[in-house]
C-alpha cells in the first residue's frame, strides 16, 4: 500500500484503487494518474485494511478491481471510510447488491450521501452497442447477433452477446414486435444459438480479442452496430467516467449504461 | 384520383397519398395497403383538388411525396380538410415550417388537434445511425464518418453524412470534448472533408446505393455504426410509423428521430 | 424466338440466349445487348428447335439459363449447331459433364474446336471471394465463414459458403495446416455448422440478398474477404466475360474461377 | 551477442537475428524460438562482427531487422558467412538491391546457392490483401481504397495503401479497364487522394493500429478485402515463412508475395 497526503482541492477527485497489484488494478492506477481532475491517493493491495487506508489517504472514491470473493467486503469497508465506490469486479447477486443499497441508505440517514456504481463491463463501445441495439430493436423486422473472440475462450456465446440478445428480445416483446422471420428448413446447426428468440453466432479466431456485431434489417435497409475491444485499456474511459459521475450520484447504480447521458 | 368510401373504423387509419403517381408515391401506396391498421383511401395526383379529395375520402392522414414547389400548399390544403400530414418532400425552410406551425395553432384554437411530421429522411437505419452517433460522440476520443454511394452521385459528401457530422460535432462541443486527435503532417487530401471539425470521407462505387459508417475510437476500443439503404422501399417502415404516430402527436414535428421511442 | 441475320464481323461475337423468357434469360439478353463486342442474334424460348434457331441466326455462342431438366439437351443441341456454350443452369453431374466432354472431343476430331463453360455461379465477387479464401487459407491459423441471406431462404448454410468451406479445408489439408484452434467447452450451438472442419455461420436478415464473409486470423492480424450480391444483375459481368472467353477456350471448363486470369 | 553451438540437424534451420535488441528483433527472436523446425543460434547486436558471429554459430539464415543505414552491409556480411538472408529493414533502392544480386551471382559461381528475401512488409494479411486487390481489380468497374490508422501517424495515405493503389491501377491499365466512374461535381475534398487514378481515403482513429480496406464494385455486387494489423507480432508468421522458404529459393526475391504459394 502506498498513499499520498496532499490536501484535496475542489477541482480534484481523490481516488484509491483496490486490487492495485492486479492487471486491471495496475491499468486503473495508470488511467487515474493520466486523467484530468483525478488524483491517485492510494494503491490498496490484498491484506491492507481498506477502511483505514482510505481514511488515511482521504480517498473520495474507491475503485474495486479485486476478486468476486472480496468485492462485497471491500465496498462496505469503503463506505465505512466515507468513500464513494466504483466496482468492476464480477460476482454480484441480487442479495449482495441489496446489502450495499441498505448500507447506502443507512449512510444517507446519517446525512452522508454516498454513491456506488457496479458495472459488469466498463467498455464504452460494448455498453453503447448494447444500449443502441435495444433502442433500435423494435424498429426492425429482423435482428441477429454475432460475437467474435479469440479461440482460447471456453464458453459460447459470450456473456455480453447473451446480455444484448436478452435486451433486444425484451425491447421487441415490449413493443409487440413479431419474431425475426426465418424460413430455415434444414441446416439449423448453422443458424447459431437461440437466446430468448434471437439468433446469436459465436466466431473464434486467432488475432481477435472481443468483438460484437448486432445486425438489424428491414426491407431494403440494414443497421449494423459493431464494437471492438482490442485491449483491456479500453475499460479505462468508462472507469474514469464512473469515478467522475459517482461523486454526484448518490445510491446504487447498476450498469454503466445508467451513468451515461444519452439524452 | 381514386377514392374509396368505406366508413372509417376505430382500428384503421384512413390514408391519402399525395403524389401517388410518382416513384415514392407509388411505393407509399403499396406500403399503406400492406400495413396492418392502415387503409389507402385516396391516391391524389397533380391537378387534383387536395382539400376536396381528402374530405370526400374521409382521409385522416395525408402523406405528401410531391415536389418542393408544391409541398407547402399541399400541407395547408390537407389541414384545411382536417387531415394530419406526413411529409417526405424536401425543400422546407424555417419560414415555410413556421407557416405550418401557425396553421396548426389556428386549428387547435378551433378545437381540432392536428399533427404534421416533416422528415427529410424516413430510412430508419439512416435516422437511427445519426441519432446513435450523436449520443455516442461525447464518449470517444476520435470520430470520423465514411459515406458510400453509387458513382452517379454529383455531390460529396452526402447530405446525410453532413447532417451526422454536424450532430456529432454539436454533441462533442456541448460536452466539452476536444477535437479528434490528428498528427497528419502531409497528405491532407486523403483525410477527407472537414465538416464542422469532423472528417468525412465519400466513397463512390458501382453497385452501392446509399450507406453511412460512423467510426468512434478510444484507446483499445472502437464503435462502428453502419447503415445500408439498398432500396427506396427502405423508407416505408418509417413512413408507416409516422402515419401511426401523427394521429396522436398534435403540432409540428421535424425529423423522424423525434417520433421514435428511444427511451 | 426472334433472330436477326446481320452477317458476323470479326469484331463481334454473335450470341443466342436460351431461356430468354425467364428472369435470368431476360437479364442476360439485356446484358448482351449492352456489352461492347457482343451482338444478341437470337432469343430462344421453350419449345424452339435449338439447333435450327442457332444455325439460322449464325450464333457463335449460346448462353443457357433454362432448367436443370433441359440444360444438358440444350448444350448438345447448341454443339450440334456449331456454337460454343456458356451454361449458368444448375443440376449438372459428373455423368452429364462427361457426356458434354465426349461431344466436344468428337467435334474436335471433326476439326471443330468448340468450348463449353459450365459455372454454378457467375457472380465475380462470389467466385473471387472463394478463390482468395482458398489461396489464403494455408497462411492463417484460424478461418471461419459467415454467410448472410434474406430470411426466405430455406437451406443453411448456403451452397456457396459450403463450397468455400470445402475449398478452404482442402487447401489447408494440402499444406498440412492444423485445424483452427477452438477451446469451446460449452455453447457449441452458437459455433455454427462444421463443414469439413471449418465453422460456417448462417445469418438470415430481412433486407439482405446474398453475402459471404471469410475471416482468417493469425496472432495480431486478420484478413476478411467479404462479398455482397445485391441483385441478379451482378451475374452479368461474369456471363459476358465467359462469352468472350469461351470462343478461345476449346473443351469443357467448369467454374468461372478457371476462366479468370489471376496470374 | 550470444550464440549456441549445438550441431545443426537436417530437420532444423539454424537462425541468427540481426538487430536482436530492437523491438522487431526481440519479437523475431521469440518467434524463431517458438517455431517448429527453427532454432535460434545467435542474437546479433550493433557492434558485433556479423560474419564472424554467424560463422561461429553455424547460422544458415540471418534475419535482419536493423536500420536502413546498416542493412545492406549486414546482408553482404551474412552472405560472406555463407548464410541465406531474410530482410525486413526498409530503405532499399534499385542500386542496393542490384549489389546484393551481384553478390549472390558471385557466390553461385563459386558453387554456393544462397537466397535473399527482402520484404517491406511481412504481414500476411496486408501482403495478401494487396495481391488479391490487384488480381481482382480488372474484373470490377469501380475500386477505392480506405486505410485506417492510429491518429499519431504523420503521413497520409499509408505506404501500404499507396502501394495497393499503384498495383490496382497497373492491373487495370494492363487489362484495358476504364477508370472508375465518378460523377462528382462538388465536394472533391471528401473524395480522398488520387493515387494513380485510384481514390484513397485515410482514416485516423484512436484505438486503431493499421488497417486497409479495398472496395471493388460492379452493378449489383461488391467485393471487400479488409486486413487488420493489431500488433507487430502479426509480422512473425511472415518472417517464419520467409526463413523456411529462403533456404530453397536461391537468388534475390523482393516482396513476400513472391514467396507465397498462391497456385
Short note summarizing the structure:
With 263 residues, chain A is of the alpha/beta class. Chain A folds into two domains: 2-118 and 233-258, NAD(P)-binding Rossmann-like Domain (Rossmann fold); 124-230, Dihydrodipicolinate Reductase, domain 2 (2-Layer Sandwich). Chain A has helices spanning 23-34, 50-57, 71-80, 94-109, 124-137, 159-174, 236-246, and strands spanning 2-3, 13-18, 38-44, 61-64, 84-87, 115-118, 142-149, 193-195, 198-204, 210-218, 221-229, 251-254.
Would you write up a description of this structure?
The structure is a homotetramer of 263-residue chains. With 263 residues, chain A is of the alpha/beta class. Chain A has two domains: 2-118 and 233-258, NAD(P)-binding Rossmann-like Domain (Rossmann fold), CATH 3.40.50.720; 124-230, Dihydrodipicolinate Reductase, domain 2, CATH 3.30.360.10. Helices cover 33% and strands 25% of the residues of chain A. Chain A contains seven helices and twelve strands. Chain A has a seven-stranded mixed β-sheet, with helices on both faces. In chain A, helix 1 (23-34) crosses helix 7 (236-246) and helix 5 (124-137) packs parallel to helix 6. Chain A is elongated, with a radius of gyration of 21 Å. Mean pLDDT of chain A is 94; it is low at 3-9. Chains in contact: A-B, A-C, A-D, B-C, B-D, C-D. At the A-C interface, strand 7, strand 9 and strand 10 of A face strand 7, strand 9 and strand 10 of C. Strand 11 of chain A pairs antiparallel with strand 11 (221-229) of chain B. Chains A, B, C, D: It is found in: Cytoplasm. Chains A, B, C, D: NAD(+) binds at residues 19-24, 88-90, 119-122. Chains A, B, C, D: The active site is at 149 (proton donor/acceptor), 153 (proton donor).
